[in-house]
Design brief:
It is a single chain. The protein is α+β, with helices and mostly antiparallel strands. The relative contact order is 0.10. It contains 18 helices and 22 strands. Strand 9 and strand 10 form a beta hairpin. An eight-stranded antiparallel sheet has the order 13-12-9-10-11-14-21-19. The longest helix is centred in the C-terminal third of the chain and has 25 residues. It is globular and about 90 Å long. Helix content is 39%, strand content 22%. The chain binds adenosine-5'-diphosphate. Adenosine-5'-diphosphate (ADP) binds next to strand 8, strand 12 and strand 13.
Length: 514
């Protein structure tokens, strides 16, 4: 029986999680800690998934393609009705930033664990968000605040602030519909292809133009607001390690942010959130240049993939607070006392083959060893037997570490990555290992363009010392097994023992075995 007065006050008693994978599990875990029953939804492809088993109840919502299951609002609302859920948490992706879904949840008499539909609408399109930010006095990247009519207009605008420029889909996300344009000649074709990609990905071909900022960092501010008028910021996350405009590694805090800059950026994010009538957890993304100037990019009106690094350095459970805020609770924190302590790093472990240009890999997880020990957190959605297909996002899990300093956190992540073993699909583990071994990454002197330039060299270097060692041990064990087999069959033949095989193999690999 629960005795805490805290959770007795919660108005939500059963929550439906409209998502899958690691974020569904993350929300289910928060529910369990709060004493709230959870309902999972799943597609046919996910019938045996971890989130389905971990939830208190689960409802099938259709075939594997997301367009026939996780994106069908009516099926999800129907599942909520059938199970008697009183709230819906959308996670990230899928329906999390669809204004119409937030509205439909509310109209069905359910609690939406997220910002008001109106705030999603205000921040939903990048152009609408830029308009709102400008009105609130928030600095934005120079560019337009409405969709481009044609290439002629694009050229006119581009010439006012000079090349390179960046074409961006107003409805964009995940780096889709973005094109860097270096000269006027490229503009026409780039605009057409950005519009095509935007239409395909978002059903909306609106594209606008921004100045392409050379060499900034991506620094974002987490905000948290309740329904009683309190709006706080929880400091920054550094997300500059990106490939194709997508984040690969995130940290909190950022090596480039001083307490003074944190306070300024935090106040800016709070102002932007207030201007949108924001409530619940959200993130304002900024580009930060070397001179400490920052420009608002967009606001993500949902929980983000990288939220754990903020949780670890602030000690504030963002997902629990999302639920408690939705239930009407007041935030009990004081802004001045929210100060990051220590250092957290997150690596996104995806089913992408680093050695093969991050080609998506599919298959069944046949073996999984999850790292543990001091300061290690695993937010994963897989287990042995999980099928990894092409229907959904390739992110298998997030490996997150916490330590006293950035150097110690990098060492800890390196150690945790060495412990991690996933068999059955190729993953990004090796990429992350090399990053933790990289002197430039360790120096922290990086920008959003750094990784793309670094990748060719990173892929070309030899396997890490640890992998060589593993190969040598495997070779020695094989030799030992063969020797035993030969001994059993031919007791008269002399065979080298495993230790000899180890030394021989190690010599071949150029490793010191002392
Ligand atoms: P999406 O919503 O598709 O993720 P964002 O606006 O968040 O798009 O931008 C994604 C990434 O693209 C940013 O983190 C940054 O690395 C890069 N980017 C965006 N705008 C600019 C810009 N004006 N100049 C340079 N890089 C940019």
């Amino acid at each position: 029986m629960r005795t805490t007065s805290l959770t007795d006050r919660l108005v939500i008693s059963k929550l439906l999680v409209a998502n899958r994978g690691e974020i569904a599990l993350r929300v289910i875990r928060a529910c369990r800690e709060l004493g709230i029953a959870s309902v999972a939804v799943y597609s046919d492809a996910d019938a045996r998934a971890l989130h389905v088993r971990e939830a208190d109840e689960a409802v099938n919502i259709g075939p594997a393609p997301a367009a026939q299951s996780y994106l069908v609002g009516e099926r999800i609302l129907d599942a909520a009705r059938r199970t008697g859920a009183d709230a819906v948490h959308p996670g990230y992706g899928f329906l999390s930033e669809r204004e119409w879904f937030a509205r439909a949840v509310r109209e069905a008499g359910l609690i939406w664990v997220g910002p008001p539909a109106e705030a999603i609408a205000a921040m939903g399109s990048k152009t609408a968000a830029r308009t709102l930010a400008v009105a609130a006095g928030v600095p934005v990247v120079p560019g337009t605040t409405s969709a481009l009519r044609d290439a002629v207009e694009a050229r006119e605008v581009a010439e006012t602030f000079g090349y390179p420029v960046l074409l961006k889909a107003a409805a964009g996300g995940g780096g889709k519909g973005m094109r860097v344009v270096h000269s006027a000649d490229e503009l026409h074709d780039a605009l057409a292809s950005a519009q095509r990609e935007a239409l395909n990905a978002f059903g909306d071909d609106a594209v606008y133009v921004e100045k392409y900022i050379d060499g900034p960092r991506h620094v974002e501010i987490q905000v948290l607001g309740d329904t009683h008028g309190t709006m706080l910021h929880l400091g920054e996350r550094e997300c500059s390690v990106q490939r194709r405009h997508q984040k690969m590694i995130e940290e909190a805090p950022s090596i480039a942010v001083t307490p003074e800059l944190r306070a300024r950026m935090g106040a800016t994010a709070v102002a932007a959130a207030r201007a949108a009538g924001y409530v619940n957890a959200g993130t304002c993304e900024f580009l930060l240049d070397r001179n400490g100037n920052y420009y608002f990019l967009e606001m993500n009106t949902r929980i983000q993939v990288e939220h754990p690094v903020t949780e670890l350095v602030t000690g504030i459970d963002l997902v629990q607070w999302q639920i408690r805020i939705a239930g009407g609770e007041r935030l009990p924190f004081v802004q001045e006392l929210i100060v990051p302590r220590g250092w957290a790093i997150e690596c996104r472990i995806t089913s992408e083959d680093f050695q093969n240009g991050f080609l998506p890999s599919t298959g069944r997880i046949t073996s999984l060893h999850i790292p543990s020990g001091p300061g290690v957190r695993w937010d994963g959605g897989i287990e042995v037997g999980s099928d990894v297909g092409l229907f959904y996002d390739p992110m298998l899990a997030k490996l997150i570490v916490y330590a006293g300093t950035r150097d110690a956190a990098i060492d800890r992540m390196h150690r945790a990555l060495l412990e991690l073993q996933i068999e059955g699909v190729e993953t990004s583990r090796e990429f992350h290992l090399r990053m933790m071994e990289d002197a430039e990454f360790r120096s922290g002197d990086i920008t959003i363009q750094w990784l793309e330039a670094k990748l060719p060299a990173l892929s070309a270097i030899l396997p890490s010392a640890n992998d060589l060692r593993a190969a040598v041990i495997a070779a020695a064990l094989m030799a030992e097994r063969d020797r035993n087999a030969v001994r059993a069959a031919r007791p008269d033949v002399s065979t080298p023992d495993g230790a000899t095989a180890w030394h021989r193999a190690a010599r071949v690999e150029g490793l010191r075995t002392a």
